[in-house]
């Protein structure tokens, strides 16, 4: 992509920050959406749950990337926090989609966050983008989340949904919690360890988003997961090998259910998600294997 002006919502999150750093390193102008008064031309004020976006700040943007949303694993899933998870994604996406659709010169592409949670429990069955939505809180959330971008799509803006897997990174997400445990020699499989974890290195997550920004004609859902999902047991063994620490402390399913409540079902659940459309589009993973992804982190 030649030098562009790109707006990013969720720019302070794990993926958003890495994306902003990557774009700026290549000379692109990045406009961050912030939930306070804008501090200069590099920021745009918005209130996702209040459905407000300062559209004037989006003028001249070639692309808009929406990665905003309350953390899935930051709190126990009370009814109130589940509403916050939903509203921060669905209402925020709707506000941005309406804002870009209303611009006199809309961006050429709108990349909106989603998650592999769209598919729900898959067991050992591999699923790609052709699979239907699953059942439960996360699948229904992802369906609403993606539908909220309809105004952008109907305005003729190329709209892409990134159904992200478990990001292997030291600074946050699931691995942000796993690394300290394993380094302390306290790591181990979760439950029986047979559940599939569809992972992706942070480097590849950012590279895939940029690939989708740059490649005309690509729209709709794309799974952002490494080509070969592994079981939790296999990933645990890989963590132990790379970090040279034993993995002696498995966490029983019952303990996870007590500690995490409803969210334990997703930790113990199996999602074998493959990036069919991304591979068919010509994207190349830099860290397709789990050991390389862990070392990269």
Short description:
The protein has 297 residues and is an alpha/beta fold.
Q: How would you describe this structure to a colleague?
A:
With 297 residues, the protein is α/β, with parallel strands linked by helices. It has a single domain (5-296), classed as NAD(P)-binding Rossmann-like Domain (Rossmann fold), CATH 3.40.50.720. 38% of the residues lie in helices and 19% in strands. The protein has 11 helices and 14 strands. It has helices at residues 14-25, 79-102, 137-147, 150-154, 173-183, 202-214, 232-243, 253-260, 264-268, 276-280, 290-296, and strands at 5-9, 29-34, 43-47, 52-53, 63-66, 109-115, 126-127, 158-164, 166-168, 196-197, 199-201, 220-224, 230-231, 272-273. The strands form 4 sheets. An 8-stranded mixed beta sheet has the order 4-3-2-1-5-6-8-12, with helices on both faces. Strands 7-14 form a two-stranded parallel ribbon. α2 links the parallel β5 (63-66) and β6. The two termini are 26 Å apart. The mean pLDDT is 90.
Q: What series of H and E elements makes up the topology? A: EHEEEEHEEHHEEHEEHEEHHHEHH
Q: Determine the fraction of residues in helical runs and give it as a percent range.
A: 25-40%
CATH superfamily: NAD(P)-binding Rossmann-like Domain
The CATH topology turns out to be Rossmann fold
Give the class from helix and strand content and strand pairing: alpha/beta
Mean pLDDT metric: 90
Residue stretches low in confidence (pLDDT < 50, at least 5 long) are: none
